[in-house]
Sequence to fold (621 residues):
Amino acid sequence: MKVVLLTKAAVPNVTAVRIDPKTGTLVREGVPLMINPWDRDAAEFALRLKDRYGGTVMALSMAPPAGKDALESLMGMGVDEAVLVSDRVYAGADTLATAYTLAKAIEKFAPDFDVVVAGEETTDSTTAHVGAQVASWLGIPYIYYAIDAEVNGRSLLVRRYLEDEGLIETYEIDMPVLVSVQKGSQVPRDISLVRKLEAKGRVKTFSNSDLGLPAECVGLRGSPTIVAKVFEAKLPQRKGELFEGPPDEAARWLAAKLREVGVV
Amino acid sequence: MSQQNICPEWPEIRREEYRGVYVYAEHDGNSLKDVSLELIGKARQLAVDLDGAEVAAIIIGGTDAMARELVETGADRVIRIVGEGLETYNPVRYSMAIAQVLDKYRPEIVLIGGTKRGRELAAYIANTLKTGITADCTELEIDKASRDLIAIRPTFGGNVLAGIRCPQRRPQMASVRPGVFPKPSRDPTRRGEVISERVDVQDGRMRLVAVERKVERDVADLPPVEKADVVVVGGRGLGSADGFHLLVELARALNGTIGASLMAVRAGWAPHTRQVGQTGKTIRPRVYIGVGVSGAVQHIVGMLESKVIIAINTDRNAPIFRYVDYGVVGDYKEIIPRLIELVKAAPKPTPTEKQPV
Ligand SMILES: Cc1cc2nc3c(=O)[nH]c(=O)nc-3n(C[C@H](O)[C@H](O)[C@H](O)COP(=O)(O)OP(=O)(O)OC[C@H]3O[C@@H](n4cnc5c(N)ncnc54)[C@H](O)[C@@H]3O)c2cc1C
Fold:
């Protein structure tokens, strides 16, 4: 079977973001890039399909050239091929334009795919949009929050977990299908350093002259949404009283505060 | 803007044909999701800035009682979608049905609750209509001059807020997580119209074959994290499930409940339903008490609107101390047991004795 693995290969490590102690503002410069962590769950899910049913897994990312490293890491996990689509005209894409570009790349580089696997969401934007939108552009059925899958003839039996309802649902879905994998649901296999080294130079990079997409459908121009403003959250004024001392006194101090507030 | 400059995949639309603020009303067969009612309340506010636009709810199936509740909460109109293939939830069929109805009624704004199912449907619907969608908004505003929705959401891992606009396309779509906006009260005198829309979605490519209940074991029989006046929230700093039991005892003594950081949930000390933060619940209790929680932005955004914020942490430089009213630097294992004794020994406040905060 032919599996396409979608990945956002270069997201800023948002937990490494610092606040400038002098100005109190966010320091965005120098934030390290990394593979979207939830995509490793998706990679494990894709590779397990391959382990059980044979075939190949092709990773696909729309990212700046820096995304190459993450794709090599995925090859280190066992992904067979990696395609990076990268072009200045793709910059500023919202999720609709991103999904359009990815869908067109799938049609071009893996037209005979059976399953597209995506991560639940990215850690920088956290929209969870792109999976459903790629399915919509491709005109195929889709399912979110998958935890495992089995092939049954021409369809895929997918179990998915709805955390907020405490339900596990099983769907039988005709292939081709897009499956978005519940974050944290897999135990991603290790990246073999040997295989990662072998992957050097094997990531295929294509630009828009290869894909030939209309400029008005990609990047900022192909995006119905625009970021009108970016700002830091205003924090409500807080008292900011700190107590440091022996535990007995600390407990008494807190109890007094709780009494003031009216809950004791 | 002339059609030449826009993507040929986008159907031509006329913005001015789109009017009204619509909410997708989700239910589980028995009752409406609270988030849908919260969004009806928000839709009413937005409608004011759109010269009194109509507020409508779209519901698939549902009951007469649900339609009444939507009207009494603020909907002028309830559109009930019925049709073959819509008896049970199905992402493709549900999204297609909703997109068809939206294409017919042409609202200006569509709001969807950011439940797991809502998030699954929202982006597919937007893509079907070739319009923009903004996920997990924490505030929604109208720019009156342009009638554009300004959808505000945390981005960059919650470190900054972005105001997103969709100037060219309609409807403008947004999803909002449960608990972000207050649930309006019901007004039994409100009247509205209920319309039935038949939609047939012929799509047999995906079939629900089994449903099992997987209930995560809760730490204690305490109210949900979003429904208590006092919430004691445990983080990774507790070090063990035993630490959580101590917090349960404190929460009981304070007539409150228990919450958890993502790391505490990951450790298996509390179920997902109790997670506070960007990817969990938004809570605004009278008192939030964070114990062994470092105060990562992704956590803070879920509790920032608490009236009083208290934290106990061994590290005096922990980021959470930047957000507190009262902070104690110390080991919770030494402080909490004593605090529980003091709280238990204190006379219980009756509601009338409670001080306004
Ligand atoms: C996209 C994204 C979404 C996220 N969503 C959420 C979310 O919804 N909710 C959430 O909570 N997190 C979320 N996170 C994770 C978040 O970034 C932090 O990793 C997490 O909140 C940290 O949890 P913690 O405070 O329990 O653990 P830590 O950061 O490890 O903090 C533990 C704290 O305990 C203190 N401590 C240790 N021992 C003691 C003791 N004996 N007594 C008192 N204090 C002690 C330590 O000093 C430390 O400050 C998200 C992250 C990402 C990238």
Q: What stands out?
A: Confidence is low (pLDDT under 50) at residues 352-357 of chain B. Residues A 14-15, 123, 126; B 157, 235-237, 261-264, 275-280, 292-294, 296, 298-299, 302, 312-315, 318, 331-333 surround flavin-adenine dinucleotide (CB under 6 Å). The two ends of chain B are 53 Å apart (CA to CA).
